[in-house]
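Re: the 176-residue chain
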Amino acid sequence: MAPPDARFGWPRRNGFVQPLVDAELLSGLDRFDHVEVRWSRRMEACTESADGVTVQLSGESSSTVKARYVVGCDGGRSATRGLMGVSFDGTTSPTRWLVIDVANGTKDPQPAHFHLGTCDKYNPHHEFNLTPVVDGKSTTTLDTTVDKLTGGDMVINVHKSAVDVATIASCAVVKS
C-alpha cells in the first residue's frame, strides 16, 4: 500500500507532528540517570578517538563532553552530520507552508492574516489570508517567498472570531 503522493517531500505515511515527537523523546530520557540534557548549546567540534568521542560545546558556557558515540539527530541542517561529513539525502517539497500553533485556541474558527507593521501598529489590510485557526492549529500553503514574509515589518494576527475581527487574540512578529 503506497501513499498516493509525496507533496511534503516524503510519502504521507511518514508524516508526524515534530513538536509531539520531540516532547515524547525528551520525556523518555527521564528513565536514564546518566543522561544530561543541555539547552542553548552549539556543537563546535567533534573528535573521534580509540575510546570514544570528544565534543566541544559553546553557548551559555563552553564545555567539553566525552562519550562513547555521537548521534546526528539534530534536524535537517544537522551540525553533527555536517561536522562528520555525513549527507542527508532525500527530497524536499518545493512548496512552502506555514503552521500556526496557538495556545488556548477555540473550537470556533479564528481568522488569521499576515499584516505589515508591528503588533502595536499594523496595516488593517492583510497581505495574506491564512487558514483559520481551529483548536489552536492552522496550516496554510502560501504562494510567496520566505524573503517576502521575513523581509520587513510583518506580523501574523489571529483574530478572536469571524464576528469579532477587531479583537486580536494573538499576534506574532515574523522574523527571518
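The beta strands are 41-49, 52-59, 63-67, 97-101, 110-117, 122-133, 137-141, 154-159, 168-173.
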